[in-house]
Amino acid sequence: MTRPIYIIGHKHSDMDSVASAYAYARLLQLQGGKHVTPARSGELRPEVDFVFKRFHIEPPQVLSDLYLQVRDVMESNVVVIHTSQSLLEATQLLQKHSYRSLPVIDAHKQVQGVITQEDVAKQFSQQLTEEFDSSVDHFAPLQRENVVRVLKGRVLLEGQRELGKRILVAAMESQTLRTALEPGDLVVTGDLQSAQATALEHGASALVVTDGAAVTERILALAREHGAMVISTTYRTFTAVRLLSMSVSAQAMMKRQFPFCHPEDYLDDIRPELLQNNALPVVDSKRRLVGYLSRTDLLNARPKQVYLVDHNERSQAVDGIEEAELLGIIDHHRVADISTSRPILFRVEPVGSTSTIIATFYQEENIPLPPEVAGILLGGILSDTLVLRSPTCTPRDKRIATELAALAGEDVEQFGQEINS
Q1: Which end of the chain is less packed: N or C, by CB atoms within 10 Å?
Q2: What SS3 class is residue 154?
Q3: What CA–CA distance (Å, rounded) separates 364 from 256?
Q4: β-pairing, 5-8 with 305-309?
Q5: What angle do CA 276, 278, 283 make, to 5 degrees?
Q6: pLDDT (tens digit, 9 = 90+) per residue, 359-392?
Q7: Which residues pair with 75 in a beta bridge?
Q8: What Cα–Cα distance (Å) separates residue 65 from each residue in 11, 203, 233?
Q9: First vs last C-alpha separation in the chain
């Protein structure tokens, strides 16, 4: 997962702070940065709102802190199983991706449950118990589509009857079969026509003929008479029964009570829950799946990346700066108390506005300033220098402001008065 880079000013987001964040983010984007996001802290001041609206630009998003959230580390491309899919398909996905659990979603992407390796193991262990030698009793009715899919079967007759919960192997005499058979059973048989006929005559909802054996017209006519489904499969009987026992839907096997989290949750808050569960579905306010968070994601979590503009004091920085990876500082104030563990971009100059420095970057990189960016930077300079009249205003501020005004199609004095009115 590619980490975003945030460009943000100080906690009290004035015009110069927000303009610098926006314009520097645009510069990095023009240089090829695909995950660079301008941000601001706190409410949007009236003058900031005025300038951004004037140039038809959405102000930077609010970033209240830099603490890691679920959205920063979760897996967005989630492997899922749908409620109607079979336990066999869930098993195959778990094995293919080496997962321990999968979210189960419905047609609206809402998470309905979670299916785990333990659920699969439980189903396999049931097959090994003695009472399932000739029949497997599911706790949910079998699904036609799943039965056909797991058997890679060929439907010879659709039938009209609903499938029951039991799978019965017709490896017995007809009299014994009649006794063992319950209405609605799905009966698995080889090419023994007597067993096939007995099953259909005594209430089988479906007949699975194994080993690619031919099904006679007499048996098909009998099945049609009783509304039963007939499926042919090339699997041998033993394999067919094992596969059929895995045709139960994921919805029937899933855990309906399960922990989950939201993208905006903080990792520190979710950590205890994640230590008790291998993974958590990440859902939105409508319980739609948006991601999956695993312990591996937690172990691989890396801090948020950030550039600070228009300040370099820890007390003015957005909360969580101590946990972030600081990439650079661009400012026009005194050097303060932020320290780093490795070298970073550090550009502090004695000018009246950070926007002046950002505009200079465009010139140094020979990147043309888009008119709307020029207008935003002009607003930052005029706001911070009191329309070029403050004691901190330098000749460079005035020169850059004149150049930006020409690009933006603005009059310096008039625009400055409108900003500060």
Answers
A1: C
A2: strand
A3: 59
A4: parallel
A5: 100
A6: 999 999 999 999 999 999 999 999 999 999 999 9
A7: 292
A8: 10, 66, 59
A9: 45
Q: Which residues pair with 230 in a beta bridge?
A: 157, 207
141 compared with 271, residue with greater pLDDT? 271
Q: How far is CA 91 from CA 105, 258, 284, 291, in A?
A: 16, 19, 27, 20
Query: Tens digit of pLDDT for each residue in 180-224?
Result: 999 999 999 999 999 999 999 999 999 999 999 999 999 999 999
Domains of the chain: 5-66+306-420 (3.90.1640.10), 141-239 (3.40.1390.20)
Q: Which of 250, 246, 256, 248 is nearest to 140 (CA)?
A: 248
Axis crossing angle, helix 371-384 with helix 354-364, rounded to the nearest 10 = 150
Rounded Cα gap, residues 205 and 218, in angstroms: 17
One-letter identity of residue 56: H
Phi/psi region, residue 142 (left: phi>0; alpha: psi -120 to 50; beta: rest), is beta
* Phi/psi at 140 (5° precision): -140, 150
CA 239, 242, 244, 250 torsion: positive or negative?
A: negative
Rounded Cα distance, 213 and 330, in Å: 78
Q: Distances from the Cα of 403 to the Cαs of 77, 381, 396, 408, 411, in angstroms? A: 46, 12, 11, 9, 11
Distances (CA, A) of 286 to 2, 84, 102, 110, 157: 26, 21, 19, 7, 41
d(CA 405, CA 143): 70
Beta strands in 297-417 (DSSP E): 305-309, 325-331, 345-348
For residue 48, which of 36, 37, 34, 62 has the smallest C-alpha distance?
62
Q: What is the C-alpha separation between 64 and 83, in angstroms, rounded?
A: 38
Contact 122, 245 (CB under 8 A): no
Contact 314, 326 (CB under 8 A): no
pLDDT at site 133: 45
Closest CA to 182 of 127, 247, 137: 137
Residue 120 is predicted with a pLDDT of 80
**pLDDT for res 27:** 98
Please report where in the chains the tokens 């005594």 appear, as a residue.
202
CA 39 to each of CA 6, 16, 204, 390: distance values in angstroms, whole numbers, following the listed order: 6, 13, 66, 27
Tell me the H-state helices in 300-365.
354-364
